[in-house]
């Protein structure tokens, strides 16, 4: 569900490269990496690329909104999974877990644990995938 209460699936993002980050406000490593995801969205986000931070906070969107305000997150949209189905469907065993998805919905990479998502290496890898032609 997005910040406006609309139910979404990954199919809603088809045509764009997506960096799906499963996280929670109560997860310290998740909290630490969120500013780098925000910076990555600011740098690369648009019609070809989207950072999708999927919160699994059981208390709903309010803790996520509060976290965004407190940390100055300005470029990331709000998304929340209301139950554990998303974690089970994506085979997530720990937080944070980030999955890089190509334009047609295929998983192209996965990382369990935090990362510096706005590092030159991460930006180069994601940019290369964005630059691949649609198949």
TrEMBL record:
Pfam families: Redoxin
Localization in the cell: Cell envelope
InterPro entries assigned: Redoxin (IPR013740), Thioredoxin-like_sf (IPR036249), Thioredoxin_CS (IPR017937), Thioredoxin_domain (IPR013766), Thioredoxin_ResA/DsbE_sf (IPR050553)
Main localisation: other
Protein keywords: Cytochrome c-type biogenesis, Redox-active center
Domain Thioredoxin, chain residue ranges per copy: 1-131
PROSITE patterns the UniProt entry points to: THIOREDOXIN_1, THIOREDOXIN_2
Entries under PANTHER family matching the protein: PROTEIN DIPZ, THIOL:DISULFIDE INTERCHANGE PROTEIN DSBE
Protein name: TlpA disulfide reductase family protein
């Amino acid at each position: 569900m997005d910040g406006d209460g609309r139910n979404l699936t990954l199919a809603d993002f088809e045509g764009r490269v997506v960096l799906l980050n499963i996280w929670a406000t109560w997860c310290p490593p998740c909290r630490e990496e969120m500013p780098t995801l925000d910076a990555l969205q600011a740098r690369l986000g648009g019609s070809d690329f989207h950072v999708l931070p999927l919160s699994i906070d059981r208390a709903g969107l309010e803790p996520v909104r509060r976290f965004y305000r407190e940390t100055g997150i300005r470029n990331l949209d709000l998304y929340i999974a209301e139950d554990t189905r998303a974690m089970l469907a994506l085979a997530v065993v720990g937080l944070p877990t980030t999955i890089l998805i190509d334009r047609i919905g295929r998983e192209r990479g996965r990382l369990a644990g935090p990362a510096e998502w706005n590092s030159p290496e991460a930006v180069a890898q994601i940019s290369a995938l964005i630059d691949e032609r649609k198949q």
